[in-house]
Amino acid sequence: METKTRPTQKQINDKLWAACDTFRGAFDSSEYKNYILVFMFVKYLSDVWKDREDEYRQKYGDDKELLARKMARERFVLPEGCRMEDLHALRNDPDIGEQIDKVLAKIEDQNLQKLDGVFRNISFNSEKLGQTKDRNRRLKNLLEDFADPVLDFRPSLWDRREDVIGNAYMYLIERFASGAGKKGGEFYTPHEVSELLARLVAPAPGARICDPTCGSGSLLITVADQVKDAKGQHSKDFALYGQESNGDTWALAKMNMFLHEMDSADIEWGDTINNPKLREGTGLMKFDVVVANPPFSLDKWGADTAEVDAFHRFARGVPPKSKGDYAFILHMIETTLPTGRVGVIVPHGVLFRGGAEGRIRQRLIEENLLEAVIGLPSNLFFGTGIPAAILLFNKAKGKDTRVVFIDASNHYEEGKKQNRLREEDMARIVDTYRNKADIAKYSHAATFEEMQGNEFNLNIPRYVDTFEEPEAVDIAATQQEIDRLEKELVEVRGKMNGYLKELGLVP
Fold first, then answer.
1. How far is CA 387 from each of CA 186, 290, 347, 371, rounded to the nearest angstrom?
2. Are both 355 and 229 inside the same structural domain?
3. In terms of domains, do 453 and 332 share one?
4. How far apart are the two ends of the chain, measured CA to CA in Å?
5. Are residues 287 and 316 part of one domain?
6. Is 121 in the same domain as 205?
C-alpha cells in the first residue's frame, strides 16, 4: 500500500518557488510565470485524478468499466496519457515541448465547458523558452522539479478546510507580481488590500459578485471568502463573475477559480469598457457587489465612442480621453442592482480633478451614491509608490447623505520593498466606516452641505485635519541648556589644550 507523507504548506511553496530557477536569469518573471503556473495546474489535475481513482479502486476493486463510468462523472476529465507522470516519462524526448502542448490540448478538449481557451496563449514548444537544445533542457528540469514528492496535491492528504493548492497558487501569483514591478500590479492586488475591500463590501449569502477588471482573480476569491452564513461560517452560496482584457491574465484567473473549486465562476475575456461580455438579454448583467482595482488613469480607454454607448453608462458625463478612472467607476455603478454596493480602488486624482471628472463626481454625490472615501498608505501596490484610495458606493444608502472620510495613510507596517496593512489597521478602517465615526485626525462623516461647500472636491485633507501642532518650546529652559552646553564646551577645550601641551604638540 502506498504511503502518504504530508508536506507542509511552506515546503510546497518553497519547492514551487525553487522550480522557477529553471527560468531565472534567462527570462523575466512576467514571461515565465505562465509556464510555472500551468505546470502546477496540470500537477493538481493529475494528483486529484489519481486520488479519486485510488478511492474508487478501494471501493469497487479493479473493475475497469465501472471505474471509467465513475471517473467520467468527476468535475473534470483527465484523458489517458495526460498525467504529470506521463509527461515526466517523456522528459528526454527531443520533441518534449510539442508533447506537452498536445497534452494541454487534450485536457482542454475534454473539459471545454470549464477550461476552454485556458491554454490557448501558451506553448511549451515556443522559442520564448530558448532554442531547441536549451528549451528541452529547461523543460526536463521543470518536469523533474514537479516530480518531487513534496509537490503532492492529493486531496486525501489534507483536511477539506485546508486550501493547500489554492494557497500555493496565490503565493506564486504574489511572488511573481512582486518581481514583475509595475506589470505585477496589472494582474494582482496585494492580499491585505483585497481583504480590506472584501470586509468593507461584506457580501451576503446569495450574492452575485463581480470584478470587471479581475486580473488573476485574487480579489474575487477574497471577496467570496467573506460570504458568511447566519452562524458566521463561510458560505458557498454566491456566484462569481469577472472580465479581464489580457488573455494571459484571463487564463490565470480561470485556473485560479478552478484550483479554488469555484468552477462555476463566469470569467470572460475582453475589454470591459469597449466590449462588456457579462450581459443578460440586451442589457448588462446586474450584481449585488461589484469590486475592482482597475488600471489607474488609463489612456485611450474608449472615450471616442462613449457618447453613443449602447448601455448608457456615461449619462452622468464622459471622462477625459486620457484618464479612464471614472469610466470604470460608472460601469461598476451601472452594473449594480438597486440594493447593490461598489468598492473600487482609485488614484487620489479621482477625488479632486476638475472638468468632466468634477461634474461626474458632483452627480454621484447629488444622487447620494457615495458612502465612503478611504485614503490608504503609500507603497502598498506593486510597481507604484503612490498612495491610493478606496471609494465605496451604495445604491441603497437611504436618507443618510453623509460620506465617511477616513485618513488611514499613516497606519501601516513598513516593509523593505512594500508597506502592508496590519490586522489592526484593517479592523479600525472597517469599524470606523460601519459606525460612521468622527475620530480626531482620522475620520469624519461629512454632510452634503460640507461637500457642496467644497465644490464637491473629495480631497481627504479638506475633511480630516491631520495637522499636528508642534510642541511648545520652553524658551527659558532652552536657553539654560544652551548655556550649560557652552560652559561644558569651554571646559572640554581647556582639557584638550592641556593634553596637547603635555605631548608637546602646542607651545
1. 16, 22, 7, 20
2. yes
3. yes
4. 96
5. yes
6. no
List, in sequence order, every residue forming a beta bridge with 373; answer none if it has no partner. 391, 405
Residue 225 in grid coordinates: 471568502
Q: What is the largest CA-CA distance in the chain?
A: 110
- Give the number of residues written for the chain: 507
Q: Which domain CATH number covers 308?
A: 3.40.50.150
Pairing between β-strand 403-407 and β-strand 388-394 as defined by DSSP bridges: unpaired
Give me 359's grid cell.
461634474
pLDDT of residue 181: 47
Query: Dihedral of CA 111/78/246/131: which sign?
Result: negative
Per-residue pLDDT, 175: 83
Q: How many domains does the chain have?
A: 3
Cβ-contact 168, 190 below 8 angstroms:
no
139 and 256, same structural domain?
no
- Residue 137: inside a domain: yes
Residues 274, 398: one domain?
yes
Q: What are phi and psi of 238, to 5 degrees?
A: -155, 165
**pLDDT tens digits for 172-207?**
888 887 665 444 445 568 889 999 999 999 999 999
Task: Report the candidate in 361, 420, 366 with the shortest Cα–Cα distance to residue 391.
Answer: 361
| CA-angle at 389, arms to 386 and 391, nearest 5° | 155
Distance CA 370, CA 293 (A): 17
Check if the beta carbon of residue 250 is closer than 8 Å to that of residue 218. no
Q: Which residue has the cell 528549451?
A: 135
CATH code at 102?
1.20.1260.30
Residue 175 within a domain: no
pLDDT in tens, 135-179: 999 999 999 999 999 998 888 887 766 678 888 888 888 888 766
Regarding whether 22 and 99 lie in a shared domain, the answer is: yes
Domain that holds residue 496: 475-507
Cell numbers at 71, concatenated: 471517473
Q: What does the DSSP assignment read for 179-219?
A: HHGGGGGGT---HHHHHHHHHHH-PPTTEEEEETT-TTSHH
Q: Are 219 and 244 in contact (CB under 8 A)?
A: no
Angle formed at CA 434 by CA 222 and CA 452, multiple of 5 degrees: 110
Q: Please report which confidence band the pLDDT of residue 383 belongs to, taking 50, 70 and 90 as the band edges.
A: low
Q: Which residues contact 73 (CB under 8 A, 6 or more apart)?
A: none
Distance CA 213, CA 320 (A): 19
Cα–Cα distance for residue pair 344/333, rounded to 1 Å: 10
Does some domain include residue 173?
no
Cell of 147: 516530480
Domain membership of residue 289 (yes or no) is yes
Rg of the chain over Cα atoms, rounded to whole angstroms, equals 29
- 152, 269: one domain: no
